[in-house]
From TrEMBL:
Lineage, highest ranks first: Bacteria, Bacillati, Bacillota, Bacilli, Bacillales
Name of the protein this chain belongs to: UDP-glucose 4-epimerase
One biological process term in Gene Ontology: galactose catabolic process via UDP-galactose, Leloir pathway
Organism, as annotated: Tumebacillus flagellatus
Catalytic activity annotation: UDP-alpha-D-glucose = UDP-alpha-D-galactose
Keyword NAD assigned: yes
Length: 328
């Protein structure tokens, strides 16, 4: 089994991936600055609180733990905040990631799985979105991730780095046993916001726009269970270990649910009212974002097995109902 460094392993998707890799028998080392992550979500004893741009720390971790591959989650990820503070996002996500990758290469690590995003596409020309769609990010968050995908390509040319970038759509859900789940501050994701309203932590849920070109007028998104995302990272690591070529992959289900479908399912599962209020559209929200998933299925053997609407919401509800204040 391999010794793997996971940056951002105290975060939502990172912590679930760490758990999955541990279950596979790998040694997993987490590096996280705990700016948005939670120490209580880290299930490995090998934890370092620090910065991904700290080259000396990276060298120490690689040497001490004989690291052979990395999974790189650490990033800022609020689209709205990136619009207000673009330089902050390019510094944290792009510049520091470049420094991190450089430190890996200098210390002999030649395999990396990168946490990218569907935001690299911007407003898609075709739905479901294939990986070769034009990349026109409409926010600095998406741009910061696209730059790193391009940098990884360059590092492969220059230094033989092998990489896979996974472009997520909408992560959701929690672990089956309810031990780890989704806890952001501020919370911006739809399903946690819906469940906070169900718990009475919010007076109501805002529905941003009801005039989209969709069957019920609300946005449609491709939701994937965080457990399936963790599996995708493990498969990507194995593909690199097996010598498969570098590349970028969508990670989704190929099916979308509307905002109203999510709310109705949550009402049924929780047995709560979940009051809603109508709000204006948000700038830059496309009608529909759904992944084309043929490539990852064919190349990596990935299939989303836990991403039906019932599992997504019931697992998240189990977490939120038992952890109403997150990890605090």
């Amino acid at each position: 089994m391999a010794s793997i460094l996971v940056t951002g392993g105290a975060g939502y998707i990172g912590s679930h991936t760490v758990r999955h890799l541990l279950e596979q028998g790998h040694e997993v080392v987490v590096l996280d600055n705990l700016q948005t992550g939670h120490r209580g979500a880290v299930l490995t004893p090998h934890f370092y609180e620090g910065d991904i741009a700290d080259a000396a720390l990276i060298a120490e971790i690689v040497r001490k733990h004989s690291i052979t591959a990395a999974v790189h989650f650490a990033a800022l990820s609020l689209v709205g905040e990136s619009m207000k503070f673009p330089t902050k996002y390019l510094e944290a996500n792009t510049v520091k990631s470049q420094q991190f990758v450089q430190a890996l290469v200098e210390n002999g690590v030649r395999r990396i799985v990168f946490s990218s995003t569907a935001a690299v596409y911007g407003v898609p020309e075709v739905v479901p979105i294939p990986e070769d769609s034009p990349k026109h990010p409409i926010n600095p968050y998406g741009l910061s991730k696209l730059f790193i995908e391009q940098y990884l390509q360059m590092m492969e040319t220059l230094h033989g780095l092998k990489w896979i970038a996974l472009r997520y759509f909408n992560a959701a859900g929690a672990s089956e046993d309810g031990r780890i789940g989704e806890a952001h501050d501020p919370e911006t994701h739809l399903i946690p916001l819906v469940l906070q309203a169900a718990l009475g932590q919010r007076e109501s849920l805002s529905i941003f726009g009801n005039d989209y070109d969709t069957p019920d007028g609300t946005c449609i998104r491709d939701y994937i269970h965080v457990r399936d995302l963790a599996d995708a990272h493990a498969l990507a690591l194995q593909a690199l270990a097996d010598g498969k070529p570098s590349g970028s992959y969508n990670v989704g289900t190929g099916k979308g649910y509307s905002v109203l479908e999510i709310i109705e399912a949550a009402r049924r599962i929780t047995g709560r009212e979940i009051p809603t209020v109508q709000a204006p559209r948000r700038e830059g929200d496309p009608d529909e974002l759904v992944a084309q998933v043929d490539k990852i299925r064919q190349d990596l053997g990935f299939t989303a097995r836990h991403s039906d609407l019932e599992t997504l919401i019931s697992s998240a509800w189990n977490w939120h109902a038992n952890h109403p204040h997150g990890y605090r």
